[in-house]
Specification:
The complex is a heterotrimer of chains A (152), B (166) and C (260). Chain A is mostly beta strands. In chain A, 5% of the residues lie in helices and 34% in strands. The N terminus and C terminus of chain A are likely disordered. Chain B has one domain: Immunoglobulin-like (Sandwich), CATH 2.60.40. In chain B, the strands form 2 sheets. In chain B, strands 3, 5, 7, 8 and 9 form a 5-stranded mixed sheet that branches. Classes of the chains: A mainly beta (152), B mainly beta (166), C alpha+beta (260). At the B-C interface, strand 4, strand 5, strand 6 and strand 7 of B face strand 3, strand 11 and strand 12 of C. Strand 6 of chain B pairs parallel with strand 12 of chain C, so a sheet runs across the interface.
Amino acid sequence: MPPKNRQSERRPTRPVTITAVVDPVAALASENLDDNLYLYDTNRAAGSTGFGTPALHSRVRKGDTLLWNVIPLECETYVALTDIEIDPRIAEPTRKVYPGTDIAFWTAEVKQDLTEPVPYRLSFLLGTVSTPFTPTARPALAGPAAEGKEGR
Amino acid sequence: MKDRISIVVMVDAVGALSDRTLHNGNLSLVDDSSAGSKHQGTPDLVTAVVPGQVVQWTPIHVDVQTPVEIQAIEFLSGAPVPLPADQAAPPAPVEPSAVPAPGAVPWTGVDATDSNGHENLDLLVWEGVVPYDMTPGVPYRYRLSLKLHEGPNSVLHIDSPALLRV
Amino acid sequence: MAQQHGIIVLFDVENALRTRSLDGNTYWFDNMKFLGSAGVGTENLVTIVPGTYFLDGSQATEQVLNWLPAALGSIPPTVPRNYLAEQERADDRRTLEELAALSGESGVSTTDLKRLQRRIGKHARKPGGGRGLTEAKLLDVTGKTTSSAGAYNYPAPVITDITGPAVTEKIIYPAQYGSPDMIYDGWYWAATVDTSRPGVYPYTVHVQLHELVERNDELIWESVDLACESSLKIISDPKRNGFTGAGLGVLPLPPVPAAG
């Protein structure tokens, strides 16, 4: 008898993860984070759009847990997500670290269903520069019915 | 005496890009001359050379995945126009050397465009023969310009290293 | 000197497992966009490999490629790979300490025991005889123990082979190496490149994903083998002297050196 995949039967309890892939050396040399920031999330099947751009629109629902983390393109170069600014009526991201490390991630719970996209602002620390870098383009959280069904 | 002298240019690219300077310990110059070089391991390296030797500069990055290339090596001239005092011993330069070094030997820049249409400084070999008319005992300082990745902040330089004929 | 090329492949593991395909579920990166790599951050990366040769025709700069797989929505690869094992152990130590503390008291309450049982979490086994991960406790994507099959952290995909025209035409020589690197520790795939024959060469990366399934009331890791494609664009250009633009010459020294 083939094994049964239990995932499809339960509502997943994994958070919606939003991952920022950053090329820190290119961003430092060019002073342009927009061209060197690639955002992805785990909700493409639910209709998230803008994959691989700094203007990712993540499809979320009230009650979803969100998790933001970072993957640097040069693994030896320091990149950290230092701040997430979003309307606190929608979500209040808090910074956490993977237990036993100083590597940070941010989590938040979506407080209400969204009727239109809510842009937010991400800030990163790169290398040893003390001033955070913020992309000009804004990612956003979007509700299930806010936009038509779109591909990437 | 050796036929060849190798000058290794070692760069902490992320440190240099973050600090926007090759100082602060972000650059280290080392050579293998046996004729009495000074200030090994610093940006003020004075490499002892003799005429006829080939000197070669090689960039090395501390972080293996970060590109570091030599953009230019320009020897600084004391003639015909003497340098103003404030430029003779410049402070830690933070500006990209988009303009040629003051008083440098005229240098047009070698084309480093690759067959894909991109500038690829890895194509350049930085080596030359020490001329016989070099004055002994006098340091010939040079501007070493490095390119770390690409963009307005990518080119940094120092004016402190020198060759010295012994 | 040319840097090593890191090629990072980010896998949407959840979608890949659901659709049993990597189509649309990989995002590729390298650090050569400034030298002409195309499609960085998409499924259609073409990695530029800028080869150089000396005037006598010999290959000058050796180009090295490294492949680094990562799972989207998992603990990121900056967290050391032995992290999962370390977290498990730390968790077990705490549980043992609490058990010791409990037995010293007058009685053991059911609530305390239940709490500890939750802490112990669930273990997943590998299927008998099959390839898979070693038996391990389940951690969620924040590094905490979990007992939910819907919350576990997807293990990083494992590259099992690299094949295709780039390999059969002897453009790259891929092999798996051990790494002392503190971050991408363990095994990784790397290749040196023969840059003497310019052209675009596709290649296929074979990966193994891991999925938890329930069988006979046990959670079991099952491996799922999938493949995805990318390509290399090889170019080759002659080295030239930085001072002369051609061959070796005399250093361009000024008649009078600058003072100082």
